[in-house]
UniProtKB/TrEMBL annotation:
Keywords tagged on the record: 4Fe-4S, Iron, Iron-sulfur, Metal-binding, Oxidoreductase
Organism: Falsigemmobacter faecalis
Name under which the protein is recorded: FAD-dependent oxidoreductase
Gene3D superfamilies: FAD/NAD(P)-binding domain
Pfam family, one: FAD_oxidored
Length: 455
């Protein structure tokens, strides 16, 4: 964007009050950042969690991305556990999460009819019916409540309404961060910094190398007063008629995955993961305004079409669009190791794997920037190629990265060593102790090129 700006002003540097001194500051309280903060605090660190908005959850709550997926390897092996499982069970206890029991995770039409409209299908599978897999439909406000509970119980100091603005550096080492608030700028000093902004805001400010990625953006929304039982009954009793209507609906919205509406734990309320809009830069204020106008216009057209044409949607109403624009990809760290599409599609195993996604392994090095001390990243902006990030950015693997990064920060402080000198085996061991799968043991379908252990 900067090349479009021809004129500049100078602003005074000024003095910034220090509002907190801590072991670890986590910037961004999305799925990755919340997990990182809880994990670091449970490992004995004094943690500050900084968030620009009033709510916790990032895309999972404010962005209303309402299905946890990419958790399963080879159809049945659940590989994102630990804090991800804890979130799931806590939400379920509040009637805020629904997922298929193991006996329903199979491939037949009966299971498909029961679970596909909850989003518990293998989206990567092209044959029909697609396999039913472990995936979790959840409620966004429940996510916010569970996040707050877990952060408070872990003793994390939460600072919302605080927009990260600058990295504090001494030479090549991070010493804290500055946030912009209603009360002016505020500084937080920290021994270790975890960048969980999703956009690499901290890393970019600290001088980390990155590539500028981009992908479709989406104004996700929910409809209420939908008779989902009627809609499903029509879909299964009149499959050809339904398919034609569904195709027409997707033309009206102008960009959606196959399943443009899914059920949520709240009766009569459906989640619409659309419209998908290419060409927008998720960091540009001008682009975000334009996409907001475009997305809202398109969703109202879809609502009108659905009310008019789709059985079950006759009385549907707009419950509302997500508070946050659905941003999938912006800056991507180019760190100590850059994960490639080949790594993911071949299921390449790494000896220093510290967390896992669907059927891939994330090496510790992919969380570390080059040349900057005391900074680690967790989330959708980790060190990865653009095409590979599209396959490895789902909520559960981002949370697993957060859990691992919190452990790494705690180990670095305890051992008085740089993050890059933390022994990945120690992170793996602690991940296992926390009930998470670090990927230290390759699954039978992994590509194992060397069995050297982590160092
Ligand atoms: C439309 C859409 C559909 C998706 N569908 C699915 C799906 O079905 N299932 C799935 O598992 N995943 C899905 N994803 C992917 C997933 O939602 C994200 O990749 C995931 O949420 C990333 O988590 P994160 O914590 O890295 O980043 P985010 O969720 O983006 O969280 C980043 C956090 O940092 C905060 N922050 C950012 N900048 C600053 C700053 N400067 N100062 C302070 N705070 C800051 C944000 O407010 C936010 O809370 C989808 C994504 C989109 C956009």
């Amino acid at each position: 964007m900067s090349e479009r700006h021809r004129e500049f002003v100078s602003v005074a540097a000024g003095q910034v009050p220090v509002v907190a001194d801590c072991d670890v500051v986590v910037v961004g309280a999305g799925p990755a950042g919340t997990s990182a903060a809880v994990s670091a605090a449970r490992n004995g660190c004094k943690v500050v969690l900084l968030e620009r908005y009033h709510h916790l959850g990032g895309m999972a709550s404010g962005g209303m991305v309402l299905v946890l997926d990419d958790m399963v390897n080879a159809g049945t092996e659940i590989v994102t556990t630990g804090i991800v499982s804890e979130f799931t069970e806590r939400m379920k206890a509040q009637d805020g999460a629904i997922y298929p029991p193991p006996e329903d995770c199979r491939t037949d039409w009966e299971a498909w009819k029961k679970w596909s409209r909850w989003g518990a299908i293998d989206f990567h599978s092209t044959g029909m019916p697609q396999p039913i897999i472990h995936a979790v439909a959840f409620d966004p406000d429940c996510w916010k409540r569970v996040s707050l509970d877990m952060v408070r119980e872990a003793g994390v100091e939460l600072r919302t309404h605080s927009w990260f603005s600058e990295a504090l550096m001494e030479g090549g080492k991070m010493t804290g961060v500055v946030a912009q608030t209603k009360m002016g700028r505020q500084a937080i000093r920290a021994k270790m910094v975890i960048d969980a902004t999703g956009d690499l805001d901290v890393g970019a400010s600290a001088g980390a190398s990155y590539l500028q990625g981009q992908f479709i953006v989406t104004t996700v929304f929910r409809l209420c007063d939908v008779d989902t039982a009627k809609a499903e009954a029509f879909e299964y009793s009149h499959p050809e008629e339904y398919k034609a209507l569904d195709r027409a609906a997707r033309r009206v919205i102008g960009g959606a995955w196959g399943m443009w509406w899914l059920k949520t734990p709240l009766p009569g309320i459906v989640w619409c993961n659309c419209p998908h809009m290419p060409g927008y830069d998720g960091m540009s204020p001008e682009h975000m305004v334009a996409s907001e106008y475009e997305g809202r216009e398109r969703m109202m057209k879809l609502l009108a079409f659905a009310r008019e044409n789709i059985p079950g949607f006759e009385n549907a109403k707009m419950l509302g669009a997500a508070e946050q624009m659905g941003i999938r990809q912006t800056r991507l760290l180019q760190g100590e190791y850059v994960v490639t599409k080949d790594d993911l599609t071949k299921r390449r195993w790494f000896a220093d794997s510290v967390c896992r996604g669907r059927d891939y392994y994330t090496p510790y090095r992919a969380l570390l920037p080059k040349g900057i001390d005391n900074l680690i990243v967790a989330g959708r902006h980790y060190s990865v190629e653009s095409e590979a990030q599209k396959l490895s950015r789902e909520i559960p693997p981002c949370m697993a990265q957060g859990e691992a990064s919190g452990i790494a920060a705690a180990l670095a402080i305890a051992g008085n060593v740089a993050l890059r000198d933390v022994d990945a085996r120690a992170i793996q061991k602690q991940m296992r102790a926390q009930g998470a799968d670090p990927g230290d043991v390759p699954s039978p379908n992994a590509l194992v090129e060397t069995m050297e252990t982590a160092q």
